[in-house]
């Protein structure tokens, strides 16, 4: 007869063999990462490129990690309010977001630099920040706040108005205006506008109800948020723009740090690989926005060097001055940015 001890051993070996024979029995469950943004979901290749960028990132990372990382994407502020995203990243209450960094200017004043009027004048100049001292300093500042940049995205912007064309500073006088950042608002105030703050996703209802007469936002948002439905005038970014916004794909640093070294490598490399896509799509939208508004019957204007110089003079006396004098390390940070040509 088989002893009781031998019988238990036999059963244990059989159970172990059965366990190892089951497919995926010891496979680790995939880690699910949530990505939030405020922009409309893209239903085609003509849809908002920011949503498409996020989806490309998610698909490629999932592919390269063989499914160990999976993503849930929440467009249209469906996961949380737009202005809550930066704070949520800081507190590790949100995994990832593609968001205008200047929206976090109240919590991290230094990032107001990333929507400073007239500071960045081209996509190429903006992208050169990444490897310049100003980009390294932004990385350091954000790391201290538990935030890491994965994809650098810059967007030029234009001006939609229901009252009159806005091309030079004098045109802004008396208008109820949305600027998009503290420093942009200061320049508009310097030009005589009455400023109102809100995320780009709220511009439509504000203009429709008369709370706003005019708004600055990216070319892509001018299209995606359908402001052409009632806007009578638009100034494009086809030639010059004083409005270049940094709108990166961000990840909570604590989440990034918890990934395996191989996952970190994949996430970082995929994020960087999408930067040219961001530049190309932004440039396309600068041109497409003019066509969308023209077809809707709006008067389309462009900004030339003379108009840009007039705005720069106002910006230097308002936004530049405030940032240098009232933000900790502001003068040094501004000088770093100005040194990038």
UniProtKB/TrEMBL annotation:
Keywords: Signal, Transport. The keyword Ion transport does not apply. Transmembrane segments: none annotated. The keyword Ribosomal protein does not apply. GO terms for biological process: C4-dicarboxylate transport; transmembrane transport. Residues 1-27 form the signal peptide. NCBIfam families: TRAP_S1. Belongs to the bacterial solute-binding protein 7 family. This is C4-dicarboxylate ABC transporter. It comes from Azonexus hydrophilus. The lineage of its organism: Bacteria, Pseudomonadati, Pseudomonadota, Betaproteobacteria, Rhodocyclales.
